[in-house]
Amino acid sequence: MNLRERFRKYIPDKDRRCATIIHGASAAAGAAAAGAIVPGSDAVAIAPVQVGMITALADEFDVHWTDAAVKSTLYASLGTIVGKGGANLVLRWVPVYGNLIRAVVAASVTEALGWAVVQKLRTDGKLT
Description:
Layout: H1 3-10, H2 14-35, H3 41-60, H4 67-83, H5 85-91, H6 97-123
Helix pairs in contact: 2-3, 2-6, 3-4, 3-6, 5-6
């Protein structure tokens, strides 16, 4: 039994599986943002987490990726990175609170992106 089958066996409800995926990715994005020391490096760490989250969500809805879906996902991730860029510039110089605030922003942006993807997959059944 592979990991996907185990995941579906132990969490049979699709909504709970989606919530588990999104919350896990949000926690990982928050940790990546909090641990980033070099300016702009949190964006590099958060983007793969968000793409992995969207891949797992698409897998839950049995949606296959196309080139257009990958591009739109990456553009959405870039949009979230640009959106928090201004806050990063200001908060970079605040020693402890800056890291905490960046972690909260990264986690909440990832959470919002995940639920937007779930809504899109429920209504259209595709990512593009």
